[in-house]
Amino acid sequence: MSRQTDALAELKKVVFQGSEWPEEVWEAFSVCWHPVEYKRKTILTSAGEVERYLYFVVEGVQRAYYLGATKRDATLIFSYAGSMSGIIDSFQLQQPSRYYLETLTASRLLRLSFPDFNRLLATYPVLERWGRLGTAAAMSGLMERYIELMTFSAEEKFRILLTRSPHVLQLIPHKYLASYLGLDPTTFSKLLASVKL
Predict the structure, then answer these.
(1) Confidence class for position 197, pLDDT limits 50, 70, 90
(2) Any idea where the domains of the chain sit in the sequence?
(3) Which of 45, 82, 102, 168 is least surrounded by Cβ atoms within 10 Å, i.e. has the fewest?
(4) Which residues contact 123 (CB under 8 A, 6 or more apart)?
(5) Which fold has domain 3-145?
(6) 174-183: string of b/e by CB count within 10 Å (b at 16+)?
(7) pTM of structure
């Protein structure tokens, strides 16, 4: 099997988790995804740009982040193999992004353009449902994360991260994990040394 075929097989597993689609729908959907590769620390989307693509991560780690007036960044979300990526609100609304999307490691992705996404959703009701449910799931995750950031202690946030995604300690530099949790790097290092799961 080619790398493209393998990547599409992984994408199919992810999108078929909720329900299976007729083969003709999968065929129309799958031909619109195109492979791309980026080096480490490549900005895929900048604040002020309209997100043009939805990505599926085949290899590598990316992060979306906000850069404030003080030039201190806040990591919003990570994406890695087997997950979707992109600045979703900018993509779906076709409005300028307030965030950046960058690769933290060399990354291999499949990408779907907004015109193809829009046409597919208008043509196939099952894809419209997939897009709606995917957006709802992302929103649910963001609301849960917002509650964690606003109400949990540093140790509780750290424990939740390691319980939910223990592999991130090996994948993602600790300074970005600290930013994601809203902690300074020193606090993160202390928690890493003291908290046992």
Answers:
(1) low
(2) 3-145, 152-197
(3) 82
(4) 28
(5) Jelly Rolls (2.60.120)
(6) eebbbbbbeb
(7) 0.88
